[in-house]
Please model this.
Amino acid sequence: MKIYLVLLICLVSNRAVGQVGDSILANETTLIRPLNVHKGQLRISGGYSLLISSTRYDAQGNKIDLSDEGFTNIGHLVDLEFNYGFTEFLQASMGINHLQQAERSRGIAIVTTPDDPINFNEIIERKGWSDIDLTLDFKAPFVTRQFDLVFSAGRSLPVAAHEPEQPEHQIENSGGFNNITYRFLNKAGQGTGAWILGVQSKIRANKLGFTLEYSHRNFPDAGSNISWRGSLDNDVISYSSSNYDYQLGDQSRFQILSEYQAWSFLNIFLGYQTLRTGEGWTEITGVRALVEEQKRSAIELGAEVLVTPRLWIRQVASFPVGGENSLNPLILSTRASYNLFPFN
Amino acid sequence: MKKIIVLIAIILPVSMVNAQVQEELTPLEIKQTTVVTQPATLKKGFLRAGAALSFSALDKFFDDDTEKRLFPDNIWAKSLSYQFAFQYGVSDRLQASLAIPFRNEFISQSLLLEVPLTNTSTISSWEIKGNGISDIELGLIYQLVPENILRRAVLVSAFLTLPTGEKNPTDVVDEQNYTLPTGSGEGSLNLDMTLRKVNYPFSYEGSVGYNIKFGGTKVLNVGEEPVSFRSANLLTLRGAYNFHLNEWLAFQNDVFYFSFGEDEVDGQTGDTKRWALQYAPRLSFQIKRFRINQAVTFVLKGRNSSADPGYTMVLQYVF
Model:
């Protein structure tokens, strides 16, 4: 009987604490929500992004239409993130995503003799889970709600597969052509760990807010990977792999975001972000070659809708505006976040 | 004692009348109902006008072994369609509709041609576009079993598609320079039966539909003569589970199964088996009489069918 009584008291008190958590969330619009989650709060976020690349930028920053180069690139990204608040000022975060991307190059037709034309196509597929990012986020203990400052530090764990699978090249004869399709199957893992450092600040005034964010990834170690080569013998393709080393360049991201809380349930925002990947190197060709610095920048436009105090949905369209040595996709993303206080 | 009984006898009917009044919604409230709570068909005299935008890109397909594969060519194709739709409540049980679609098609391809014998190489890049009205659709939906608080609604519908869009390639210069058609070139009739049940905050729907294609003649390959054809008839099964996330936002989950018959070209029937299983999660924002629907359609599995997701946004307003 006493056990039932204790259980009843525990249940009631747990429910009461849960309700306290709900009341905290109920009073938070997107604008005034702190950058960290509250003590005991677990946030689970998941989203889907469609990435469509129709332009690339050369080393001088000139915009090139990919259709002029016979090149296409389309991707689908699913991301998942968990945040948990150990205290009001310290949260742990974990992020992972799944990428599926296909890159097609211009077809090549070689006519050696009129009776024996050959058509080459190449598809480079990148598919799989990314590495896991783990960070600790420290929120400065300011008493004011007008200003937030958060420092982040963490590690990207190279747990995802990064070595490409054996290619699946195909040879078939159709339409009078010998069609050869090179199909490379790459993975989404980086293959080497990275240190993550970041800082984020937010200033709020009435219905307006401004957020500045900077994050940096450093890959201290060189990675090792394999590359595949195929050789044709009597219409049969045999494959062999060889190892090579590479060094990823540091990655940095800067974002500025202005937001307006139109209604208590609707927040609209406009932002600008730039991503830079520093120089690295690769020995994939047998000799060490420089991988040039890459940059890309985009303007973001979006909205967040508070569905319930526990659930919100964020939609963003990211429009490419510049870059160097990189593709810059149009990104359309939808993300939902659900919040709970599981251990209180 | 007699007075008490009389009093109760007076109060009870009044109370019942009040209860019945509380169940009634004003016309304005009905116009503000969500996709979950809205009547199965529009009430008499109500008009719902809307615009829809759909986008998809060509990337993947399910092959004959139901394996998802990437298109091998470097072709880049995208399709943007937008339509204006009007629905009108002829009576409380009969709804008429009109949809006027437009299509914007784009295909680009590039090829490097090398001829070692003459030591020449040429890059050919071409873009083919098409933009214009597509096939208009007229429809009727009737509540065979009218919906009420206790009963499921049974709806029957008929949608007639008229081949109003351009069916043939136009402005043909050669195989790489022409304007894409925006119409199918054939009429069709879609018959559908739907079972619907609202149990606030949930609603459930199940339907079966059959689309009959009438066929026609059109140019299938640029530069060739028109040939007679008839597209495959289509059987559609749909299940939907919808619920409110809050008072003004509903989440819809639609699962579709499509089974295609055989295409006919020049009297010859193909033997390609085609089917697709799709899942379409949707968010429906209801702001007074204004509604925004967003959906992404994922092809879960299929055979000889597209595997690309599609995005749709719909804006609606009830007058």
Observations:
- Chain B touches chain A through 31 residues (CB under 8 Å).
- Helices of chain B lie at 2-23, 27-31.
- Confidence is low (pLDDT under 50) at residues 14-22 of chain B.
- The longest strand of chain B covers residues 94-115.
